[in-house]
């Protein structure tokens, strides 16, 4: 069940995000972790809070936690939000 977290505009916050390699090949390389805040449990229409570069190196079945720090935009109304984290591989070039 999704849960919400308080987000205050202009205030520093952090959250822990765990990545897990559920495949049968190692996961490694550069990636970007983006955190958004949304009033919708699906994460739709989320406001970007931060985008952080990551160096990923996971063996199959392994997991690693990352602490992500961010400052909420001052234009974001204070309240409780669903926080969503997405990871995208960065391609060379």
Polypeptide structure, described:
This protein is mainly beta and 93 residues long. It contains no helices and 6 strands. The strands form 2 sheets. The chain has a 4-stranded antiparallel sheet, with no helix packed on it. Strands 2-5 form a two-stranded antiparallel sheet. Strand 3 and strand 4 form a beta hairpin. It starts with a strand and ends with a strand. The relative contact order is 0.41. The model has no long low-confidence stretch (mean pLDDT 90).
Topology (SSEs and partners):
Blueprint (H helix, E strand, L loop, with lengths): L4 E3 L4 E9 L6 E12 L8 E12 L4 E9 L7 E11 L4
Q: Which residues form runs of ≥5 with pLDDT under 50? A: none
Into which percent range does the helicity of residues fall?
A: under 10%
CATH topology: Immunoglobulin-like
**Strand coverage percent:** over 45%
Look at the structure and name the CATH superfamily. Answer: Immunoglobulins
- Give the name of the CATH architecture: Sandwich
Q: Structural class of the helices, strands and pairings?
A: mainly beta
Shape: elongated
- Straight-line N-to-C gap: 39 Å
The ordered string of helix (H) and strand (E) elements is EEEEEE
The tally of beta strands, per DSSP, is 6
- Sheet with most strands: strand arrangement: 1-6-3-4
Q: State the domain count.
A: 1
Number of helices: 0
Described by strand count, sense and barrel closure, the largest sheet is: 4 strands, antiparallel
């Amino acid at each position: 069940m999704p849960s919400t977290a308080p987000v205050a505009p202009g205030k520093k916050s952090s959250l822990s995000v765990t990545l897990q390699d559920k495949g049968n090949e190692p996961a490694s390389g550069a990636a970007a972790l983006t955190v958004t805040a949304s009033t919708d449990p699906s994460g739709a229409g989320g406001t970007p809070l931060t985008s952080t570069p990551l160096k990923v190196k996971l063996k199959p079945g392994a997991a690693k936690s990352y602490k992500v720090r961010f400052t909420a935009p001052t234009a974001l109304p204070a309240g409780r939000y669903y926080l969503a984290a997405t990871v995208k591989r960065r391609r060379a070039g």
